[in-house]
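Class, study these two lines:
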Amino acid sequence: MSYELMDGVERNRAHPDTFHIPYAEELDAIKVGFWVKVGAMTPKAHRCEAERFWVKVTEVTPEGFKGTVDNDTVLANHHGLRYMDIVSIERRHVLATMAPPAQ
């Protein structure tokens, strides 16, 4: 099953007062071990438009990031993504970031 990730930049342009995304500096700071929140789109016939979840970054690429889904997804039957699946993410798909705890 293929998936489509929510375009956070597009959503922010359409709803700048209510749909916030990370600043470029926050995206630039993402390293292996960070988490990024993304949204997988579901069919419009389903009552939810997207399911948001965390991905643990395993690689920083020229296009963005690669990582593994780091929590159980509720709507996996609609978008196809499950815990530990590998995901390729462009910077425009990042809805939030979280650094690992300080050691």
User: Anything to note?
Assistant: The chain has three helices and five strands.
